Amino acid sequence: xxxxxxxxxxxxxxxKVRERINNAALRSGRRPExxxxxxxxxxVGAEAIETAIEEKILDFGENxxxxxxxxxDIFKERCNWHLIGRLQTNKVKYIIDKVTMIHxxxxxxxxxxxxxRAMACNRTVDVLIQVxxxxxxxxxxxxxxxxxxxxxxxxxxxxxxxKGLMTIAPYTEDPESVxxxxxxxxxxxxxxxxxxxxxxxxxxxxxxxxxDFEVAVEEGANIVRIGSSIFGERQYP
Length: 237
Prior knowledge:
Elements lengths: L3 H24 L8 E5 L5 H9 L4 E4 L2 H11 L4 E4 L8 H4 L5 E5 L2 H13 L4 E6 L16 H8 L5 E7 L12 H16 L5 E7 L6 H6 L4 E4 L1 H4 L6
Parallel strand pairs: 1-2, 1-8, 2-3, 3-4, 4-5, 5-6, 6-7
Helix pairs in contact: 1-2
């Protein structure tokens, strides 16, 4: 059962997270208001999401299509929904008209399906290319060496609008140990931006989660995806 105490914890957590984002932005000579906080709401109930909305959080990230659809049915367009997990091609049709952004474009066949479904409903979908900077076999994403060529291919899809890059760093107790990952993604983003590829915009860098978002912001993140630091440790069913 969700209690008034639970709601207050979320409010307190949001205050702390926002302060940490602000401080990290200022340390890197950037404006705190330029950092978009996406609250990762996977496994989180409607009451907790409602509390976050009351605290002016308008962007929520979901890993699974089925869960996103359930929450979309409740909240509709009161907030922006981001698909941040790996997206199966056969699930694209369910979310194509509901998401603000897909953070996990990681293969040509997914791009083809997004293009087909977006064209069918007459919309253009904002996406981020997921890059596997760490090289971990367990993580999805385009290798750093292949990102440029992949971006060029993506520029040819009229109903897909590439808005930047995303990465997931390995979990670590010491965020400093993954600073190089965020720095490298920022450099890749700058290099691609310089090429002025049609239909490819390096506006966003989505990187940093609860355990490492301050380092990510210091290295150039302007979207951070934060779940447990807002909602508490996840309770998996």
